[in-house]
């Protein structure tokens, strides 16, 4: 897959451009339906499957709250697109100019730079200032310009329409298993292991403290069964995510992973934590000894659960 920065940076491949546009944060099952439709149109046309995504996430410009909102960083999104079979990915900077751009102006730029033969979108996709553009406008625009418009219906699971917003809500509630079903994979955090307080080691369960991307959504505070990927190898892990109230708490959220049955020097290395299930909520214990007993139980429970999972990914 080729990656281009901006519309101006795109280098045509000599084939008809079949285009999909969206933020695609998380590349969940709904997004994958759009990409699958794009690939199908491109194959039928003998064309090039081209996707457009935005960085930073539009919400950070349109409605900034300071709250972490990303399901996937731009680097993670590029990896997910590469695995999806898209031929080219255009990463467009979303800024105030893009925010204030009229829908008609945006479509003019798309036509000028990409000359798409087909445009594939989700039925919920909106664009342009105040989100005035949508499927109905695109269909009329395509009719006038001779561009085929493919509108992909929403994907539902258990009566809920799968969306990035719904997945964020499930994660913040600690329901990582439902989030995984909607994503089509375990939700992950990736980062470098940094020095911690050493309390885990003193309790008998050394942990790797993950320095994660500040804009990535964190699951709700608690203890999780997870997989920790180090250098391409997966290890079962018990992960604590929270403010460590037994030791004074505070506002700083830490992500601490105990790799079960592994003794590795992880300081300074990049690891990825993939959350499988929340075992319990974060608790305050009377003393470190009581916490150590509970951590021992957490580790055993995580090991049993992950053994049952047999390291299977969500299909």
Straight-line distance between termini: 23 Å
List the uncertain runs.
Answer: none
Mean pLDDT: 91
**How many whole angstroms does the radius of gyration measure?**
22 Å
Shape category: elongated
Strand order in the sheet with the most strands: 1-4-3-2-5-6
Percent of residues in β-strands: 25-35%
Summary of the model, kept short:
Helices cover 33% and strands 28% of the residues. With 315 residues, it is α/β, with parallel strands linked by helices.
Helix and strand topology:
Elements: E1 2-5, E2 17-21, H1 29-45, E3 48-55, H2 59-62, H3 74-84, E4 88-93, H4 96-100, H5 103-114, E5 116-122, H6 135-145, E6 148-152, E7 156-157, E8 160-161, H7 164-172, H8 176-183, E9 187-194, H9 199-202, E10 208-212, E11 222-230, E12 233-242, E13 254-259, E14 270-280, H10 288-309
Parallel strand pairs: 1-4, 2-3, 2-5, 3-4, 5-6
Antiparallel strand pairs: 7-8, 9-10, 9-14, 10-13, 11-12, 11-14, 12-13
Helix pairs in contact: 7-8
Can you tag this structure with a few keywords?
33% helix, 315 residues, 6-stranded parallel beta sheet, alpha/beta, 10 helices, 6-stranded antiparallel β-barrel
Describe the 3D structure.
The strands form 3 sheets. This protein has a 6-stranded parallel sheet with strand order 1-4-3-2-5-6, with helices on both faces. The model has no long low-confidence stretch (mean pLDDT 91). Helix 7 packs antiparallel against helix 8. It has helices spanning 29-45, 59-62, 74-84, 96-100, 103-114, 135-145, 164-172, 176-183, 199-202, 288-309, and strands spanning 2-5, 17-21, 48-55, 88-93, 116-122, 148-152, 156-157, 160-161, 187-194, 208-212, 222-230, 233-242, 254-259, 270-280. Helices cover 33% and strands 28% of the residues. It is elongated and about 70 Å long. The chain has 10 helices and 14 strands. With 315 residues, it is an alpha/beta fold. Strand 5 (116-122), helix 6 (135-145) and strand 6 form a beta-alpha-beta unit.
């Amino acid at each position: 897959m080729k990656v281009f920065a901006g519309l101006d940076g795109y280098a045509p491949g000599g084939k008809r451009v079949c285009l999909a546009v969206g933020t695609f944060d998380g590349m969940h099952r709904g997004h994958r339906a759009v990409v699958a439709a794009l690939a199908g149109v491109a194959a039928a046309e003998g064309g090039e499957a081209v996707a457009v995504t935005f960085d930073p996430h539009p919400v950070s410009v349109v409605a900034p709250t300071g709250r972490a909102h990303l399901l996937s960083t731009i680097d993670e999104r590029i990896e997910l697109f590469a695995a999806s079979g898209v031929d080219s990915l255009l990463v467009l900077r979303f800024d105030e100019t893009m925010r204030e751009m009229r829908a008609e102006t945006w479509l003019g730029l798309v036509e000028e730079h990409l000359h798409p033969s087909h445009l594939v979108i989700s039925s919920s996709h909106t664009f342009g200032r105040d989100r005035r553009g949508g499927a109905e406008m695109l269909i009329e625009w395509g009719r006038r310009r001779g561009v085929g418009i493919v509108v992909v219906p929403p994907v539902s699971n258990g009566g809920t329409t799968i969306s990035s917003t719904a997945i964020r809500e499930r994660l913040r509630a600690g329901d990582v298993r439902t989030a995984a079903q909607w994503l089509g994979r375990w939700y992950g955090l990736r980062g470098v292991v940094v020095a911690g307080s050493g309390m885990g080691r003193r309790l008998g369960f050394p942990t790797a403290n993950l320095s994660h991307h500040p804009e990535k959504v964190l699951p709700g505070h608690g203890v999780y069964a997870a997989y920790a990927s180090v250098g391409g190898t997966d290890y079962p892990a018990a992960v604590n995510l929270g403010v460590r109230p037994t030791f004074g708490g505070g506002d700083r959220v830490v992500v601490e992973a105990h790799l079960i049955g592994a003794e590795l020097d992880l300081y300074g290395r990049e690891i990825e934590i993939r959350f499988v299930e929340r075992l319990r909520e974060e608790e305050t214990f009377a003393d470190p000894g009581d916490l150590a007993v509970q951590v021992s139980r957490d580790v055993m429970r995580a090991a049993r659960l992950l053994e049952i999972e047999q390291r299977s990914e969500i299909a």
